[in-house]
Give the backbone structure.
Amino acid sequence: MPDTTAAQPAAKPPAWQWLYPVAVLTAVQIASGRSQVAMPPVFSFDKVAHFFVFGLVATLILRQLATTRRPALLAVLLTSLYGALDEIHQAFTPGRDAGVADWIADTLGASVAALVHTRWPLYRRLLNAPVSRLREAFRQPAAPRG
């Protein structure tokens, strides 16, 4: 009797879901074109923002590339390339400057996000769960009335 419990290959995500990473990258592009970007006066907040935003981008791209060969590596490379292009764009924006440290933060954020997505099954299940199921899982049971 054949083993029916073997993991099925991941289904290719719908093409419209590329809108998610494109929307985030569009927001990054708009922010990069501004002379000043509003930020809280926290030391190195800029690097933290780069880390998390580009980590999000890598996660969104990785989810789209799930059926390709080496999706995590490809997602990190694409995100890192976009980060480098973004820094070049900032070099030509008045009031902004390009920074290798920003690109490193972009690439580190993408790498950590890809690693977590690849190695932590619970994280992947949470990302892929329908919102209705998540709401149900986190709903608090009503307190007994008495």
